[in-house]
Amino acid sequence: MPIRKIVLVEPGAPGYHVFSRVALPRLGLPMLAAILRRDGYTDIRIYCEDLAPIDIADVAGADLVGISTTTSTALAAYRLGSLVKRMNPHAIVVLGGIHVTFMSHEPFDADFCARHGIEMPVCDHVVEGEGEYAFRDLVRALENGPKPDAIVGRRLRHSPGAPIDASSGIGDLDELPFPDLDSIVGRERMTIAPIITSRGCPFDCTFCSVIEMFSQKVRYRSIDVDDPRSVIAEMRQLHANHTGSVFFYDDNFTTNIERTKQLLENIIRADVVPRYWSAQVRATEIVRDRELLALMKRTHCIIAYMGLESVNPATLKAFNKKQTVEQVVEAIRVLRGFGVRAHGMFVLGSDEDTVDTIRATADFAIRNDVSTVQFMILTPLPGTRFFQKLVDEGRILDDDWSRYDAHHTVFWPKCMSPRDLQEETFRAMSRVYRSVRCALPVLHGNLITVFMRWYGHGMVAAQTRRSVEYVRSLPNTIRPVADWVRGAGSAGSLDVRPGV
To answer: Are the CB atoms for 377 and 346 separated by under 8 Å?
Structure first.
């Protein structure tokens, strides 16, 4: 079949989250658009719901519709695919992204869709794993044959505990074109340009799906000043388009400190220093290299997002985090000394956590004057060992994926009730973002921190209001450990087969 018009869609995340007011799309769909344009396709449009409303009529009028999924947007993606198929049965609908990589059977599962009120068919194909080449090959096969399978691509790990095959991913990231941001509807709203310089993470946190999707073998893009495919060349292009600020999407921007320093030095050499930039970094790297911190300050790093996870050493060990509370404290201190704000991301609700742990986390954030924080409820994401553990123990409470957003308790904690985990997390956030703490940085002329804290204050208040009924629906008892194995499978409706 001839494919002329292609529409790619990233559904918006449900509820409030830390980036709710930041117009920042993920890079998967812009990368697909760039690859398809390189193959000669010209009629391509991207809808990122966080940037602009989705024009359903426009989407349904396409020959090919690609929809990206995360776990919290999966149901929205399925409903959109179902709607497109009803409006235009001839449209080819393809789902991809991290959620369907690990739940690739789900869009074809009539029982699952019926439980969630989704009319089938939802889609024609699912792409597993890193989708750039798999999606391109699927489009070619749709036009020229042979008829492609319902599920294409390749995930890294096919069953929990199996070795990860890093060859499933893109080998040379420099072969990929720069993301096509101009195809995004609402592109003019973007004040921050997303750039990625690497894929993968060498660490192995038990609750994180990054390595399951992108592997522990980190792959890097060129940072050479003279390489037309490099990160520097992409920044030159953005600089020419007057995009002044950058967010580095790397899962860990400081995985290789010497490379990160060289990148920042090359940014200075090439005269493409952004107005400001931010990235996700790790406390263990930040504390051991002052030269890196000086370069971050010199190139206008405004905030470092750090996965601090916990102030409970037992939880850090259970998460396999490989960092200490002392390193966290030192990282916050040295960042402040170099004028870089620390955004601390904590994950609450491990089997080692109690109500007191959550309260202690708020105490820690206040005592160490962390610029901004995000207290996330531990969420069992498909593809992770933590998810499989909870399924095996029958501890999953809810299979409504829209609640898998780190703001809802969807499992039975060990040392507190589900309601306790939900309520105490938001109480802790409310303490950290109370009005007086939001206003205090004014005394030091730190207006950016004031703004960010008031944003956090509003976000917590809004999410608390929206979750009142959900909190009331949560069990208010602690489930005995002896019941876990007996309850295995009691999520019942939650089918966790890894594929069809």
So the answer is: no
pTM of model > 0.90? yes
- pLDDT tens per residue across span 67-91: 999 999 999 999 999 999 999 999 9
Supply φ then ψ for residue 147, to 5 degrees.
Answer: -60, 125
Residues 6+ apart with CB under 8 A from 64: 3, 5, 6, 7, 91, 92, 94, 139, 142
Contact 9, 66 (CB under 8 A): yes
Q: Which of 428, 397, 430, 421 lies closest to 349 in space, CA to CA?
A: 421
Residue 415 located in a structural domain: yes
Pair type for strands 245-248 and 64-69: unpaired
Domain assignment of residue 244, yes or no: no
**Residue 157's pLDDT band (cuts 50, 70, 90):** low
Give the start-end residues of each E strand in 78-133. 92-97, 125-128
Report the SS3 class of residue 179.
coil
Q: What range does the domain containing 122 cover?
A: 5-168
Which residues lie across from 219 on neighbouring strands? 199
- For 123-148, give one letter per residue: b (16+ CB within 10 A) or e: bbbbbbbbbbbbbbebbeebeeeeeb
Q: How far apart are CA 199 and CA 221, in angstroms?
A: 9
- Distance set, CA 34 to CA 8, 164, 180, 229 (Å): 12, 28, 5, 13
78 belongs to a structural domain: yes
Residue 491: strand, helix, or coil: coil
Q: How many domains are contained in the chain?
A: 2
Contact 500, 108 (CB under 8 A): yes
